[in-house]
Design a protein that fits this description.
Layout: H1 7-15, H2 20-30, H3 32-48, E1 52-55, H4 62-73, H5 75-85, E2 88-92, E3 96-100, H6 107-114, H7 117-122
Antiparallel strand pairs: 1-3, 2-3
Helix pairs in contact: 2-3, 2-5, 3-4
């Protein structure tokens, strides 16, 4: 299961739409490793001033890797995180998460290069075959 949803949030979802803040709280509590990685790259992106930051450290175990895969494979979770942090997320090799501020000088070009087939091919490693 991707998220641990408490009964109150589930009741609200059954009745009506759920606001981003409640959904983000559920993601943060359910997927703490993914939250840590994404909030970290978003913070480093802002601190660095280049409109870009990434995480190249593989997850410590399969459970953590699964959290990243789930959060970034879900349109709802990924979109909520992008809105919450004000970033555009990109993903390679089941652990390389990047955050972009597409309004920063050169960031849109850097994003296009990061998500290109060429970048994906160049980011391969025998260590990542089973990721």
């Amino acid at each position: 299961m991707s998220l641990t949803v408490d009964d109150r949030l589930l009741e609200r979802a059954l009745r009506d739409e759920v606001d981003d803040a409640s959904f983000i709280a559920c993601v943060r509590e359910s997927l703490p490793y993914a939250w840590e990685v994404i909030s970290g790259v978003a913070a480093r992106m802002r601190e660095g001033g280049a409109g870009f930051a990434d995480n190249q450290t593989p997850p410590p175990d399969e459970r953590a890797r699964g959290q990243l895969l789930r959060v970034l494979a879900s349109d709802a979770m990924r979109g909520a995180l992008e809105r919450h942090f004000g970033v555009r997320l990109a993903f390679q090799n089941c652990h390389r998460v990047a955050a972009f501020d597409l309004d920063a000088d050169g960031a849109a070009d850097r994003h296009a290069r990061f998500v290109s087939p060429r970048a994906q091919l160049l980011n391969q490693s025998p260590d990542l075959v089973d990721c």
